[in-house]
Amino acid sequence: MDYESNKRTLDELVRIFRPQLPEIARLGVLAIETQVPDYVRPHDARYSEVIQSAVEYSVGHWFDLIVDPEADSAEVVQFFYDLGVGEAREGRVSLEVWQTSARLATRATVDFISQRAPEEGLDVPGRVVGQITASVLAYIDVLAEAVSRGYTEASAREVGEFQGRRKRLLDLLLEPGPEPKEIRELAAKTDWALPQTVAVVAVLEREGTSPRRPALPSEVLVGLHLDQPCVLVPDPDGPGRRKMLEHGLKEWIAVAGPTVPLTEAARSRDWAGQGLGLAARGLVPTDDLVIATEHLPSLVILRQEDLVGQVAERRLGPLLSLRPRQRHVLARTLLACLESGFNATEVATRLHMHAQTIRYRVRQLEGLLGEGMYDPAQRLELHMVLHGWLTLNPEGAEED
Length: 400
Hints:
By secondary structure, this protein is of the alpha+beta class. It has helices at 2-17, 21-35, 45-67, 74-89, 96-119, 126-173, 180-189, 241-248, 265-280, 296-301, 305-320, 324-339, 344-351, 355-369, 376-392; strands at residues 197-205, 221-223, 230-234, 252-256, 260-261, 290-291.
């Protein structure tokens, strides 16, 4: 008996208030626009109409469910799924705005019915009020789930597409001689501000580690998908940039190429890759970010590593035949002499030794290499080959 009585009350409620849907929706929209600034667009009348339609549509289907709990909700669920997609495309960082709006519209609807029912001569018993409240809450949960699903799936697609465009932009920038027009078009689609200069930082996992993704600002393009992973840094000489890279790449071996114009990023990557090759072999220190231009002699000389070995055999043959410890001592001494004009006092200061010790070593070198080591015409070649050989054969790498 109670069920049939409740049903008659609810049917009567729907009969009375369905024709008032536009007014109910208007009050719901007014509550939203009063308290949710994000949904207020005074210069876009269509936007208010969309909100009005959404509120009217949702309340109208709720009336349908009151009359027939088995009514098909697929269409309204799809509508609110699409609304969730729209929220994602609007760039909302969460659904908090929509959830607030849904609560306001629901409260406005319930308040309207509660206040107007007596005026319409409708007596709504407490048990029916409870039934209405439970019904509207369950209904809002269904709509919220649809909105959340649309928002989540659309956000994932947006993120995937955005990251895909950023990867394509990085790939384009790393090509030799990329077209500036293509760069501008793709940068615009990724909200990437075009810098005047860039530098490429080649990165490599430290042996035995599984580093996290580099923690870098959004303007840095990260290319861990590449055969040679790297990051591209806009305006690399700006204040705080080096510190930022050292912090963000501290779990990686990282070598920064030289600063170049935007369309010449491939050159920076080339030198960064060369430097990373040396770093991976332990030929340059890797505790902090390696700056390629700070190791220019090694990078230039060791681009032809086999040639360094051949010239070393020709120019340093007698020295290289010595025991490892002795040949390293004399090679470092000769390099310091070449860089100091064979001034024994200056060399001694550089190597933290007594000048007489340096003179003794120079006599040893003369006995091994002859007067040719003083020849100005051959000094550059000798300097280069010594630098390259000492880099490739660091002291302690050989057994005595």
